[in-house]
């Protein structure tokens, strides 16, 4: 049962301009993806990550864990964590070095 309550997503960078279900995306924009669906896109990592969590979280969730890709610096992740704490004060937010090359952030919500 616990595994079924975990939801996941990722934030990655668009490699080309495209029309998507969330609007026009430009190369270099951040894309938040869950399953096979683009949830939100934009130019700011903070806003896109908060939008992803907003879309995935529900009342029974308690923890958001961010696994940072090798392109995310400590200052950048601090800004994201602060924004998530402000947007979701009832959730615990953790972040770890994931080291993945292709995903800017991997997100697990439980």
Give an overview in words.
- With 110 residues, the chain is α+β, with helices and mostly antiparallel strands.
- Helices cover 24% and strands 37% of the residues.
- The strands form 2 sheets. Strands 5-4-1-8-6-7 form a 6-stranded mixed sheet, covered by helices on one side. Strands 2-3 form a two-stranded antiparallel ribbon.
- Helix 1 (45-56) packs across helix 2.
- The longest helix has 14 residues, at 74-87.
- It is globular.
- It starts with 6 loop residues before the first strand and ends with a strand.
- The model has no long low-confidence stretch (mean pLDDT 95).
* Sheet with the most strands, sense and barrel status: 6 strands, mixed
Share in β-strands:
35-45%
Order of helices and strands: EEEEEHEHEE
Mean pLDDT: 95
Number of helices: 2
Number of strands: 8
- Helix/strand class: alpha+beta
Keywords:
alpha+beta, 110 residues, 2 helices, globular, six-stranded mixed sheet, 24% helix
How do the helices and strands line up, and which of them pair or pack?
Layout: E1 7-13, E2 18-20, E3 23-25, E4 30-34, E5 37-42, H1 45-56, E6 63-68, H2 74-87, E7 92-97, E8 105-109
Parallel strand pairs: 6-7
Antiparallel strand pairs: 1-4, 1-8, 2-3, 4-5, 6-8
Helix pairs in contact: 1-2
């Amino acid at each position: 049962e616990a595994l079924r309550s975990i939801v996941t997503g990722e934030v990655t960078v668009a490699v080309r301009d495209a029309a998507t279900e969330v609007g026009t995306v430009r190369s270099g924009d951040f894309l938040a993806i869950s399953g096979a669906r683009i949830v939100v896109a934009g130019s700011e990592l903070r806003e896109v990550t908060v939008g992803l969590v907003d879309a995935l979280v529900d009342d029974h969730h308690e923890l958001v864990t961010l696994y940072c890709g090798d392109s995310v610096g400590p200052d950048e992740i601090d800004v994201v964590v602060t924004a998530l704490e402000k947007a979701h004060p009832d959730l615990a937010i953790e972040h770890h070095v994931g080291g993945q090359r292709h995903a800017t952030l991997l997100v697990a919500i439980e």
